[in-house]
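REQUEST ID: PR-0412
SUBMITTED BY: lab tech R.K.
PRIORITY: routine
TASK: structure prediction, single protein chain
INPUT:
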Amino acid sequence: MLLLHFLSSSPASSPLCPRFLLHPNPPASLRFLAMSAAASTSSSRPVRGATVPVPSLGADEASEVADEAFQRHTSPSLRRGGAGVAVVWFRNDLRVLDNEALVRAWAASEAVLPVFCVDPRVLEGTTHYFGFPKTGALRAQFLIECLGDLKQNLRKKGLDLLVRHGKPEEILPSIAKAVSAHTIYAHKETCSEELLVERLVRKGLEQVQITQGGAPGQKKPLNPRLQLIWGATMYHIDDLPFTVNNLPDVYTQFRKAVESKSSVRNCSKLPPSLGPTPSSGLGEIGGWGTIPTLESLGLSATKSEKGMHFTGGENAALGRVHEYFWKKDQLRVYKETRNGMLGPDYSTKFSPWLASGSLSPRYVCEEVKRYEKQRVANDSTYWVLFELIWRDYFRFLSAKYGNSIFHLGGPRKVVSKWSQDQALFESWRDGRTGYPLIDANMRELSSTGFMSNRGRQIVCSFLVRDMGIDWRMGAEWFETSLLDYDPASNYGNWTYGAGVGNDPREDRYSSIPKQAKTYDPEGEYVAYWLPELRSLAKERRNFPGTSYIRQIVPLKFDGGNQKNNQQFNRQRRSNNMYRRQVK
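STATUS: complete
OUTPUT:
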């Protein structure tokens, strides 16, 4: 299946906690969504006890890279033909480069007002079934950095960012009225919570009347309108060789169809300046506002002392593309390294910026094509695009299947019995299962907000296959914890991992012993996150026996490893306790 560590989009994404940010015992994250690629050389591996910045570029270098990218995508020949004021409602598209909503607002107006709404339902709410925090502190901090960077880049283009705390359906109509905006431009979403907000914003705008156009004394009142634009995927929805309702239920069929019959559009060009902002009206709505802090959101985070630390924002995103493709030249080996788990460069790590919209998938595609012309075209360069197509696929599937991707039986309405055993779930969440590979991955998630694609597959399989736990608990915990969370990718991946996705063939079991021997043969990864294992012989780190905590459940299938490896001594439980009963 796909491995999207640089994208946020492959198969996979509670009950128990009031508002918290992170648990004292580290939890974990999902597999299928974030694209990673790079060679796991010793120089790219994390130093024990030190955090590793991603990207590793300094702020000045990242800013220079971004400025150069903006310059390549700026066209002085663009002409502005609109009148009045247009508002740009930023959502999960926190970028200036290749932001079609922003460019179209500029072209259709004389002044542009960018707005971001700090929606308390998203940043202070809870998940649907199990009441976990909807946004954990790590992603909240990443979002805060994205907003600060967006504000800075908008200012470079003659604009600014107005920030308001509240519901978009209440804020946007009042702003449109204050500045007499004729249109609010925004990127369209596909999942139910976001679609509901779109409907409520449109309804709120129907209650607003502004006067615009005509001769003095003959100006006609009109309602501001909401103009939604597709911009979240590499392939545009209008360029698919079928309607969304006829989307193939098998990824390979989808991929082959778009690769043969569709083409990726070029990134939209920018004018030299996007200004000005409106000349009046801002005073009556309280000025530009301020970007929130973790404290203002009621959150707090403990600074991690190890693992990767991602910097939010468009400059960091463009800097990471430059660093991974051009500076470190890791793109040429992506396919060989993408299943790694330790260090920043086994994969692209683009997914957090793709999920926040700080990075355009079309820009990544353009850079891949540019790299292929200037350096090399091989299986690795293609595989980055392969993963981006997976990301697209999950976005389109969420439009086709709607809320069924969040339901227990998934798109195929599979009837199964699942456990919601809280103690078992918490042992998984906190990295206390007794299986080093599971525990290390979950602790990385709680410390960094990230987990490798391989790790996401493994911890998902363990939760649903070996523990028999309701897959939605895992998906909602990932929703809380992942930096690269987006609903389509997260829940799409989890439905696949749980065997309830739209493609019945994607129903797989990951053997922990086999995965450990294949992807962490010397136990370097587990020893990094579980330092108590470092003193053991390398071949015993993933199979520590009584040198580690007792295993919480037996494995459903272990390929004979339990008997052959004395390390797998554990407290046995009845095999029937956690087995799913498929009717």
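NOTES: The mean pLDDT is 88.
REVIEWED BY: pending
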